[in-house]
Design brief:
The chain is mainly alpha-helical. Helices cover 73% and strands 2% of the residues.
């Protein structure tokens, strides 16, 4: 059961990516060119702004039309730099991780005892898992600062009551893309560090840690709620996990409050550790 649940989240992401990719392709295969299809055609031809104008007009006629909302969200996501085609490598790397198998134990003999053989096998398995996880992370489309604004609006369009698993799947993917951007911005972001870190006067910033945990934790909680919509049989499980993430965020923020009250030496020590780990986004330098 543990092995099944270990990569469950990755499997869901893979299914969501597959669903979104197929959804986008099938939408474009409708025979009659409705306003929605005209908008998709304009997006494909590189006229995203024209598509947005058309879809905004349609949404003004009926703001409860989920198909138009989804199409408009797709247009703004496209404007942010996100492309449905970018899901292909994510689908492949996620599939690889979801079907991951432990490295078979090396045969004993030839100077290897059974115990050493198992330890080597476990080490190889761990390395392969890390590589596979890095591949999944790298396969998630990246955004720039300008793209964040448009992606946030794309998400806002889908934050309405009554959405179906179709919209929740797409929203989930957008949130995963946004989460990668926030991890890089708030955790690994250069901030002031690159210019001043050589002086060694950097220290950990409790307020930056709190900001990173709050933003990323909130997004993870929302992703879990989307999973509860796309996987109704496990709705309660994902809702419980979402609440647990929110509690973890509060707990970590309470620790950052204690860190704020610590002396400068402690902050400098944590700053050195953060620098070694490359966590530039949670540091400040004088």
């Amino acid at each position: 059961m543990r092995k099944h649940s270990k990569f469950h989240f990755i499997k869901i992401i893979m299914l969501g990516a597959t669903f979104t990719f197929v959804m986008a392709c099938s939408d474009r295969e409708e025979r009659s060119e409705s306003p929605k299809m005209t908008a998709y055609r304009l997006i494909d031809e590189g006229h995203t702004d024209e598509a947005i104008v058309l879809l905004e007009q349609e949404l003004a006629k009926d703001d409860k039309n989920l198909e138009i909302r989804l199409a408009l969200s797709s247009a703004y996501a496209h404007k942010s730099g996100f492309r449905v085609q970018a899901l292909v490598p994510l689908m492949k790397s996620s599939e690889s991780l979801a079907s991951f198998k432990d490295t078979p134990a090396l045969p004993a003999g030839g100077g290897f005892s059974t115990t050493i053989s198992k330890e080597l096998s476990a080490a190889l398995t761990m390395i392969n898992k890390i590589v596979a996880q890095i591949q999944v992370y790298n396969s998630i489309p990246s955004l720039d600062a300008n793209g964040e604004i448009f992606l946030l609006y794309a998400l806002k369009l889908l934050n309405v009551p009554g959405i179906t698993s179709r919209e929740a799947n797409y929203r989930l993917i957008l949130r995963v893309v946004l989460m990668k951007y926030y991890v890089e911005k708030f955790v690994f972001g250069a901030s002031q560090v690159d210019d001043k870190s050589e002086s060694g006067s950097c220290e950990i910033s409790p307020s930056k840690i709190s900001e990173a945990v709050t933003v990323i934790g909130g997004l993870v909680s929302d992703i879990l709620l989307d999973l509860s919509l796309t996987q109704p049989k496990e709705k309660e499980v994902f809702e419980t996990k979402s609440r647990q993430v929110a509690l973890n965020v509060d707990e970590i923020n309470s620790y950052t409050t204690l860190l704020s009250a610590s002396d400068g030496n402690s902050k400098a020590l944590f700053g050195q550790v953060a620098k070694i780990l490359g966590l530039k986004g949670v540091m400040v330098c004088e």
